[in-house]
Amino acid sequence: MQERDQDNPKAREAWFMRGRTVPTGEVPAALRFRAFQQKMQLRQLFAARAVAAIPHVSTAGWVPLGPAPLASDAGTGQNYGSVSGRATAVAIDPADATGNTVYIGGAHGGVWRSKNAGPLSAGAASVVVDSVLDYESTLAVGSIAIQPSGNTDTTKGVILVGTGEPNSSGDSYYGLGILRSADGGATWTAITQDAGGAHSFAGLGFSKIAFSTANPQLVVAATAAATQGFVLGLESRSR
């Protein structure tokens, strides 16, 4: 008996691909950012409804789990013991002459800061690490640089974080530009393009950021895309 609804592989494939093709003129990273904004709007909406429905929510019993190594899944036959995510960037704050203030970037884990990573700690177990970048448009980090301004106050340092992991691995995310903090990581603003506006940073991964020693306001940022790498110059102020 002939099927009433005959299979049409070519039409099915065309339908499948249409939903996974980036529209002309769009950048995948920008589309992902748009989806992120929609997600955050929905999260706020649901949070407001939850608060209205539940007058009191106890947080007792919750404890932080990291940063700390996690046990890999031995059930898959690929047990690697205790593992952690990729650390993609490390920068020591020059404002701290003791060398204790250190910033660490994760492949897709934001930026973490320790204020006792140097001589203040007898060993690694004593180092305390806190997150300073948890809620930005992207948490993929490729590079970190701190302005060598001669400032001795770590709460007023200018920090640049190049987003996007430039390793081109199967689980790497491209970035949305450079995140800038002028208060030691307390708040962040996004630099989304170069000084002249000719190059958008959406979809790139930053492999290195370096401040000029002759002019601390000048920064050189090396970026990597899926098929090319190039260098852009920009000033360190927010745009």
Jot down its keywords.
single chain, 239 residues, alpha+beta, Methylamine Dehydrogenase, Chain H, four-stranded antiparallel β-sheet, 15% helix, globular, disordered C terminus
CATH topology of the domain at 85-235: Methylamine Dehydrogenase, Chain H
The fourth-level CATH homologous superfamily of the domain at 85-235 is: YVTN repeat-like/Quinoprotein amine dehydrogenase
Which oligomeric form is depicted? Answer: single chain
- Quick one: biggest sheet? 4 strands, antiparallel
**How big is the Rg?**
22 Å
Distance between the termini: 67 Å
Overall body shape: globular
What string gives the helices and strands in order?
HHEEEEEEEEEEEEE
Beta-strand residue fraction: 25-35%
Quick structural summary:
The chain is of the alpha+beta class and 239 residues long. It contains 2 helices and 13 strands; from the N terminus they run ααβββββββββββββ. It has a domain at 85-235: Methylamine Dehydrogenase, Chain H, CATH 2.130.10.10.
Write up this protein.
Helices cover 15% and strands 26% of the residues. Residues 226-239 have low confidence and may be disordered. It is globular, with a radius of gyration of 22 Å. Strand 11 and strand 12 (218-224) form a beta hairpin. It has two helices and 13 strands. The protein has a domain at 85-235: Methylamine Dehydrogenase, Chain H (7 Propeller). It has helices spanning 9-18, 28-53, and strands at 70-71, 82-83, 87-92, 102-106, 111-114, 129-133, 141-146, 159-163, 178-181, 189-191, 205-211, 218-224, 229-235. The strands form four sheets. It has a four-stranded antiparallel beta sheet, with no helix packed on it. A four-stranded antiparallel beta sheet has the order 7-8-9-10, with no helix packed on it. The chain is α+β, with helices and mostly antiparallel strands and 239 residues long.
